[in-house]
Design brief:
Layout (H helix, E strand, L loop, with lengths): L2 H67 L1
């Protein structure tokens, strides 16, 4: 093989190595993102429960105020 062919092979191997590192980095970031989304999902479920309780209490308060006026 001549020198140009060796340079092309090294260049392509370098690109391949960089693509592999990028893929590994993306995999790690996806795992972190999934964990964050799961934490947010749990937080949103708790928030929805609390909002539901607040809505029930508000409706009950409104109904009791209407009954007092009568």
């Amino acid at each position: 093989m001549d020198q140009n062919t060796d340079q092309y092979i090294q260049y392509i191997n370098g690109i391949s190595g960089n693509i592999g590192r990028i893929a590994d980095s993306i995999t790690i970031k996806i795992g972190d993102t999934m964990r964050s989304i799961q934490e947010l999902n749990g937080t949103l479920q708790i928030t929805n429960i609390l909002l539901g309780i607040l809505a029930v209490i508000s409706i009950a308060n409104f109904v009791l105020k209407l009954k007092r006026r009568q």
